[in-house]
Amino acid sequence: MARTIPHLEELRKMDRAHHLHPFTDHATMHPSGTHILESGAGCYLQGEEGKLLDGLAGLWCVNVGYGRKEIVEAVAKQMQELSFYPSFFNSTTEPAVRLADRLGRMAPGNLNYAVFSNSGSEANETALKIIRQYQILKGKPERTKIVTRDFAYHGVTLATASMTGLPSCQTPYGLPLPGFLHAPAPYAYAMGREKEAEVYGEECVATTKKLIEKEGPETIGAMFLEPVQGAGGVLVPPAGYLKAMRELAREYEILFVADEVITAFGRLGAWFASAMWNLEPDLMILAKGLTSGYISMGATIVSQPIAEVLMKGGYFAHGFTYSGHPVAAAAAMANMDIIEKEKLVERTKEKLGPYFQKKLQEFAGHPAVGEVRGVGLIGAMELLPKGGRKDLRPGMNLGIAGAAKVRKEGAIVRGIRDLLAFAPPLVITEKEVDELFGAVRRGIDHLWD
Ligand SMILES: Cc1ncc(COP(=O)(O)O)c(C=O)c1O
């Protein structure tokens, strides 16, 4: 049921006058005004549209659901004890140390050291700088170029937006910067190759190899890769693809970075996709699910050999005022306690993930659906116009239209180009999965109206 928010129109007026929103078309938003959300509990949000089931966990991040008292209490306690102290200049705080220790012990392989920041973008930017410094210290200062992929999303700073493979994030800013190379993404559906996705994946690896050889492997510092590409459209890698990309990096002594900002902390039914798919990354990027979005935090997890080179390399002149913020670290610890205590990783792997995927698969064959794909508690649905695939045109944005219809039916999903993306909180129940896909069905049944 819709709710009356006190001061709603006044808030919207102030918002129009003074607030530039991230990733928003203001000309489209302003006539009706922004949506204001007021409260959240579990998988549900409450705002002026009434109660909404959040099928995107905020922005792929609220893994433990909204309103978790354990995190609120841990944060309040830390704020009372010590609201802030930096980790600069030989000092730190207990939560920052405990979190670094926990991440170092949990992270796969030899990923043993955490460099903290405030976001996924900062964690990737930090990785870029560490890689530069490492290559210089190893006597390879010419290894400055970075390989990523089309449809990648690694952030929005100048350098990380250059790694991102989405024209919408680059064209307005005259990016990418020189030295950022884009290999093809294994997006078989977009090429009409979904029936032979593995073959297409092999072709993508071969094209990446050619790109590396053309540029000169000795000029390339690292390859960044999201195990499942999230914001680019939930692109699930075909069998064999990630392993082959990992091998390619190893063959040319290019550092391999797993950007797990979305995929870590249980989303795929494992603490880390890197462990699940045996990627053995040299660096791993964390944010979002690290604190379930309760407070901002990012982390760049660095392998033992790289950390050793850095530690012997003199002064480490990088870091943000709030790197390892004690309040954020306390939130991360409480968040990870919940994930462990409620066995959210195991639950996603064994129960809710398979159930969610089964329900998603039921849309295959729907006249408005061209493909469904997913793994664990993340998924996507490619939408079609009335005339079918042959009538798909760039800029139709069926996903945006579809998401608006689904929202009217009571659930938030994300529209990206012509697809819908889903990533509900990991605490979702089977009944709530049914409710989510019920809203999706009612929405897309009317997609062409
Ligand atoms: C894989 C990945 N990397 C990096 C980022 C950037 O994170 P932030 O928005 O916290 O800067 C995102 C955000 O969606 C992401 O999905």
Walk me through this protein's architecture.
By secondary structure, this protein is an alpha/beta fold. The protein folds into two domains: 35-64 and 343-445, Aspartate Aminotransferase, domain 1 (Alpha-Beta Complex), CATH 3.90.1150.10; 69-341, Aspartate Aminotransferase, domain 2 (3-Layer(aba) Sandwich). Helix content is 40%, strand content 16%. The protein has 16 helices and 15 strands. It has helices at residues 8-18, 26-32, 57-60, 69-81, 94-106, 120-137, 158-163, 167-170, 197-215, 241-251, 273-276, 304-312, 326-341, 344-361, 398-408, 430-445; strands at 37-41, 44-47, 50-54, 111-117, 145-149, 180-183, 220-225, 255-259, 283-286, 298-303, 369-375, 378-383, 411-412, 414-416, 419-422. The strands form three sheets. A seven-stranded mixed sheet has the order 4-10-9-8-7-5-6, with helices on both faces. A hairpin with a 2-residue loop joins strand 1 (37-41) and strand 2. The mean pLDDT is 97. The site of pyridoxal-5'-phosphate has 14 residues, from helix 6.
